[in-house]
Structures are given as C-alpha cells and as structure tokens.
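Example record used in the benchmark description.
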Amino acid sequence: MRTSSWSPSLSRTSIPALLAFGSSVLFSVSAAAQPAPAEPQKPPPETTAAPAQPSEAPAQPAEASPAREAAPAPSRPDEDRLVPADAPKTPPKAVASPDPDRDKRALTRQGAERPAAANAVGSRPSEVFAEDWWSQARPSIEVHGVFRTRTELFYQFALGRRDPIASALWPQPADNHYIPTAGEAQVVRLCGDDPTATPLAACEDNTQLGVNMRFRLNPEIHISDNLRIHSQFDVFDNLVFGSTPEGYMNVPAAGGGYTVAARGGYAPLGALSTTAWAPVAGQTSLVDSIVAKRAWAEYSTPVGLLRFGRMPNHWGLGMVYNSGDGYDSDWQSTVDRIMFTTGIKKYDLYFSGAWDHMGIGATSARFGEQQGQPYNLGNLDDVNQYVAIIARKRDPELQLLDLAKGLPVINAGLYFAYRSQTLANDDTSSSTNAASLGQLPTNVRLGYTRREAEFFMPDLWFQFLYKKFRFEAEAAMIYGTIENTGTTGRPSGNLTGQPSVVDVNPLDAKDVGYTVRSFGLTGQAEFRAMEDKLRLDFGFGWASGDPDVESLAPPRTGMEPQLTADRTYSMFRMHPDYRVDLIFWRNIMSRVQGAYYLRPQVQYDFSRDPNGQRLGGSAAVVWSRASEFIQTPGNKRDLGVELDLSLYFQAKDGSLNDGVDKMGGFYTALQYGVFFPLGGLDYLQGEVTRYASENGGSQLQTATAQAFRLYLGVMF
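Model output (structure tokens):
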C-alpha cells in the first residue's frame, strides 16, 4: 500500500485529527483480520456483517459495512484535548430486500472461501467437523491378552501311594517301576550302567518336569459407544514344550481310533528330530494350534444391556461359576447365552435374566455337507437352563469415595439357575453310535433313554468393605432329582421281562431315581496395612461330602456308584479354577471337593511404585480335612498340610498396570510348595500287612510332595 510523504511539522489542531484517522484505520484493519471482533463495553446497534474466514491466501477486499451513528462524545476538560474524540459515523443504509439469487451466490462464495490449505482443519478426508462425527465414525479394535510360559516340576505327586492306575489319585510316572497294591506290576526295567545285564535295573523316577505355553488374545470391536463385539482366541493353548516333534504323527487306525504313523527317513528316531511341527488336531495333537473359545456381542439400550453369544460365566468369588480369565488360569465357565441386564442406578440395583443352552443333543450337521444352517433334531433331549440374577453393586468410583470417607460398603447378590432335561442321548456303547457326530435321526432315536432331571441352584454372594478391610463370602446349593442315571439307549421304554428304564430302589419299588443335595461355602478376609504393601489374608471353604461314595474323586468314566441303598448324591465340587494352593487341590485333586480347608496368608511388597512396578513375596499355609472320613483312603478326616511360598516381580512397562493393583506388561513369579500328607491319605493297616506278605516284606508308606514353578508372562 503506497502512502504519500508528509512533513514532520504539524500544527496543534491537526494532531487530534491525525490520531482520530489512525485509530479509525487501525480498527478497520483489526476487524478484517480477526475471526471475531472484541465486544465493546456498550454494544452498538446490530449489524449483518460476519467476520472473515481465516486463510493463508491474500485476503480479499471486504465489502463496506453500513456505518453506525455513535452517541455524542462527552465534553472534555482542556487538559484532555490531546485525546482524540470518537470519529463521526454515517447513518446506516437501508436494509436490502430479500434476494434468493444473491443468497445463493453468497453461499457459493462462502464455500469457495472455506479453508483448503494442506494444514487447515478439515482439508484432509481423515478430518471431520464436530457436527459430522456420527456419519464418519468407524469401528475401533482393541486387543488385550496374555502370553505366558510356565515351568513346573512335580515331585512325589503320587504321595508314595502304589494304587492301581484306575483308582489312583495321581498316577505314578510312566517310567517308574513299581508294584501296585492290586493288579499287575508296572514294569520298567531298562535302566542301569551295564546295558548287557540280565535283567536290567528297574527305573525309578518320581519327578515330572515340563514347560507349557499359551498366547491368549481377547479382541474387542467397538462399533459405536453402545455396540461392541468381544471374542477370545487361544494360540498354543497350554502347549507342552516338545510334544509335537518332527516325525511324530497319528493316522486313523483300521479298527477305529488312531495309530502312530511310521517316521520319515530324515527323522526316523525321536532323538534325531531337528524341529517342532505345528499342533494339528488328530495328527500331532489333541487340539489345533488356534482355538476359538468365545464370541459374543453387547448392545447398550436406554433401558439395559443385551448380551448374546458364547460368553464367560462368572459370579461372586468364582466358587461355582468362574470365567477363568486370570493370568494363571487353566479352566473356564463358558456358556451359550442370551442375556439382558437392567437396573436402578440410583440404588445400585441390577436385575438380569438369561436363557442358557447347556446342551441340545444331536444336530442336522453332516460330514458330507459343511455349509448351510444345522438345526436341532429334537427338543426333549435339550438341557435348558434359565437364570435370574439380582445384585446390589456399588459404582466403583463411588465405592472408592465412600471408603476414603470411612464409610462401609456392602455389595451382595443372588444367582439362581433352573436346569432340566427330559430325554438323554448319552449312549457310548451302542453299535449304531447314536450319540456320535453326523448321525441321521433314525440312529439318534436309538440312543434315547428317559432322564427326567431337574435342578434348582441358588448361589448367594456377599461383600463387606470398610477402609482397608474386605470380607467376601459365597454360598451355593444344588437341589434336584434324577429319575435315571443310565446311558444305554432304551427308546421302547418299559417292556415285559426287562428292567425298568429308570433307577428303582431295590428296597422300595416306589422309590424311583436319585436326589441331589449338595452344599458349598467359601470366604475370604483381607486386611491391608503399611500403604497397602502388607496384606493379611484368611480364607476358608467347605464342600459337602457323600458318606455313601468311596472316594473323594469321581471315577474316570461314569457316575459314582452308591455303596448303600441311600438315594442321595451330596458331593459338592468347587470350580477347578477357584484355587487355594499349589499341589493338593490344584493338581492332585484338580479342585476342592468333599472337604473343608483353612488358609492363612501373608503377602508383602518389598518395593511398590505408583506406576505398577513392584517386587514382593507371599507365604500361605493350607490345612485340609475331609467332610466325610469314609471317603478318604485312610478313613480319617485329616488330609494334609501344605506350605506355599512365592516371590514375584511386576514391571512397569504395560498399558494395563497404571495402578498398583493392576497387572500389565512383564510379570514373573517363582513359587515353591510342599505338601505333608496326614492320616486321611495313609494306607489302611490291612493293606500294609497284606502288601508286606505278598512282596517279601516291602513296606507301604506315604511321601511328601513338592512343587517348583517358574512363571514368565506378558499382559497387555
């Protein structure tokens, strides 16, 4: 912009005029450059002028805005005459009449002037304006999971007992030579320093060492704020290291089942294998390398949450229903379910109803057709379950606030399930293979028998929180009836001269079937101190036993036989992923069943950072006793005492461990356990005497079991 030269000598009367002119020009330039002019203390009359859009291109000349008439300036004293007066403004022009063509041109010009530079907001397709987000949103994917490798050494897990394999609590190692208390000897005479000796020395091995791994993925697809899909996949699900070596493969056998195929020339012996093959179900492993475990959807409505698909089932402490999603879990409760949850947020009350498909029997799926929609071949053999849940659960943030204020918090709920089945097709001995895959309805019918099973299963959960103290308990009951426990197909029903299709009490012809009455209880008490570094825990649990059943563990196949005329099953078994120790209940018995235990524990974090990194250790003692002494091998209640020690380290490099109580990133633990068997697991005196007389004075005695574990994992 060109300006004419001016003389530095100015008269006194020209200074105010010059200042007024400069102020007017400055105001005009500022108004054109800023997106929105500053609001004056006294707003002038309305105007139709809009602020110009910012642009990197040279600004276009702005149209002249109608001038506004200002109020007369107040009189000023002589000493303030150097302050310029407000510039006079021309009266506003007449408002133009509506013109659609002019408005259209203005809109076109406005669109052309929209920012289009490379760095301007909205210039790229990936950028949207706030009012258009709903039309541009795309699903987001979150992937969480855990990768773990566990080294485990088991020593004397058979507890020194020489029971036959069919009745052993824990089978002896396959390479251990021993003579059982009944049946044939397990002969392994291939050891010794002299390979030419006759006979070779007996092999003795009471140690079982192995390493296993799992890579679990939990992808989540978030379609919108109220719609999402969850899933779970396991890669190398508890794959034992070295279990699929080069050259090892199974093929279908001529008489059914599988047989090991001849090894190839490059690995004719297992000792010559140079690599590992991928797990393939039926060939190199029992399961495939990748297994889909769960998939379900969730839709949030204004009145509640709808969930449908194959999903986890967890309630309370996990004594009965346990999702098994822990970093060290091996067992799960997974259910095919349609579920709806609603509630009263004001009172922290929630109500749920669910329809579970626990088993529907045979479907129309056939080996000759892998596509299409299979359907249920019959409804009477379905195992249907209906669930009702009512719970009071305090909002997590409000719960923390209440605890910080020193207020107690109570959470509780009831999980009630009803299950029934009319007919059953559990036949495994029929020549028609009525319960096998791909059968026609004609063959399926031949496997039917009358079941008439009905169960009522309430499960109560209670939690009390106060400052640093937590008490939590769960109590459950299974109450029901089963008319028939047989599995042999009897579609023709009762026929003259043949046994009844239902279980009839031989002492009372009117007493049909069996009754189920079992109870379980578990509790946990925890107190934290020293900035939560110290944790004092006390746990207990009880599972009802059955005085008419011989063993704590069920047989490998079939129902437990009742030793008397009693018609009641009262054995209660907790979920196998509800763990209380390292050796006896976790591995030897696989779960707490028919017994009660007491478990004090102390845990201390030697180093604990707010970012989640910590180093600590724990020690626990577990004392176990049988609910019914007659079920133990030694016919005594005391089963044993176990001492478990642990040393753990949690790194800070994880997206999940943003709090001291969360686990994420790298985690490792070194654990040691020792179990001392007591009288309930000892031999009966008659067994000791008979075994000594039959085996040259050899003595029977129990042994102490030990376990060593190294856990290496990454959680994300």
